[in-house]
């Protein structure tokens, strides 16, 4: 993979603009590169189709741009902007500012629905092609074999731990969601043993308490299943467990890829557990009915 920075790309743009004769990158591609350099936030998170549409070109133009710059394709080029934004820009306010500054046409509800659906579908398809099937298998192995599964995520990613823990708890016994109100994390983590599994979920910007919890549990010999993005501080090697890398941007308006990966792991776990999972769900259903929990 080519190692270039945003500043390197800016130098290339200036050199290409100064060339006499035809640019080796192509005029349309240069327009796209200039737009990406001027708007690094959207360049880091928008889908290839979104960036192409905003610049009035075909998505293949962005693919060619990446290749002509020495990358394998557009994804590696976009990674340059992701790293730059992660290092230099405020995470939440920058994203909201980008969304507020979208073209006027996106104020139309139907157009907003269409554009957002298209963008999220593209991200899910990209993840489906890049998700490590072996890592998913190792994750299921750990989930099924653990004496007790403890799920930890905090702040914006707490929704993932609640979803993961709630549904896994319908498939097997001994599943606990950590970090719930009224409970101290220290007390909760103190009960974990090497026979258990800590499922840790965190995406950029990472929550310090989750990172610290993973480090402490590694020292205590507790296996870790990390659901996170690439180059994350909670990623673990085989000696400490396994990591499922979900390398798609996570924002309040873009979390479909993360939920898709979690759903995939839960589906694979249900299939592995087989009849015992079905029996567990039926037992929970009987309890719900006895307690008159649901309205149908």
Describe this structure in words.
Keywords: DNA-binding, Glycolysis, Transcription, Transcription regulation. This is DNA-binding MurR/RpiR family transcriptional regulator. Residues 139-275 form the SIS domain. Helices cover 59% and strands 8% of the residues. Helix 2 (27-38) crosses helix 5, helix 5 packs across helix 6 and helix 8 (109-130) packs across helix 13 (256-273). It has 296 residues and is of the alpha/beta class. The longest helix has 22 residues, at 109-130. The radius of gyration is 22 Å and the shape is elongated. A five-stranded parallel beta sheet has the order 2-1-3-4-5, with helices on both faces. The model has no long low-confidence stretch (mean pLDDT 87). It folds into two domains: 6-102, Winged helix-like DNA-binding domain superfamily/Winged helix DNA-binding domain (Arc Repressor Mutant, subunit A, Orthogonal Bundle), CATH 1.10.10.10; 133-290, Glucose-6-phosphate isomerase like protein, domain 1 (Rossmann fold), CATH 3.40.50. It has helices spanning 6-18, 27-38, 40-45, 48-55, 59-68, 74-88, 91-100, 109-130, 133-145, 158-171, 185-190, 208-219, 256-273, 275-290, and strands at residues 149-152, 175-177, 197-202, 224-228, 241-245. The protein is built from 14 helices and five strands.
């Amino acid at each position: 993979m080519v190692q270039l920075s945003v500043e390197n790309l800016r130098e290339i743009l200036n050199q290409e603009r100064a060339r006499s004769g035809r640019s080796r990158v192509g005029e349309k591609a240069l327009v796209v590169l200039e737009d990406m350099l001027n708007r690094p936030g959207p360049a880091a998170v928008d889908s290839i189709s979104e960036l192409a549409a905003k610049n009035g070109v075909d998505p293949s133009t962005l693919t060619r741009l990446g290749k002509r710059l020495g990358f394998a394709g557009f994804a590696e080029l976009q990674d340059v902007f992701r790293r730059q934004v992660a290092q230099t820009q405020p995470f939440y306010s920058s994203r909201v500012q980008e969304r507020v500054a979208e073209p006027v046409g996106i104020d139309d509800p139907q157009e907003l629905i269409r554009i957002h659906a298209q963008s999220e579908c593209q991200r899910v398809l990209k993840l489906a092609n890049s998700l490590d099937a072996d890592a998913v298998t190792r994750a299921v192995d750990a989930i099924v074999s653990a004496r007790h599964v403890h799920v930890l995520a905090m702040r914006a990613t707490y929704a993932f731990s609640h979803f993961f823990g709630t549904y896994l708890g319908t498939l097997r016994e001994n599943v606990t969601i950590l970090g719930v109100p009224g409970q101290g994390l220290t007390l909760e983590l103190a009960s974990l043993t090497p026979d258990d599994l800590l499922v840790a979920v965190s995406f950029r910007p990472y929550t310090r308490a989750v990172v610290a919890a993973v480090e402490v549990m590694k020292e205590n010999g507790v296996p870790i299943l990390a659901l996170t993005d690439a180059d994350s501080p909670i990623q673990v090697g085989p000696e400490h467990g396994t990591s499922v890398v979900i390398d798609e941007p996570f924002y309040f308006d873009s979390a479909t890829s993360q939920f898709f990966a979690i759903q995939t792991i839960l589906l694979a776990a249900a299939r592995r557990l087989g009849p015992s999972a079905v029996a567990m769900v039926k037992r929970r259903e009987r309890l719900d009915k006895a307690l008159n929990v649901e309205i149908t």
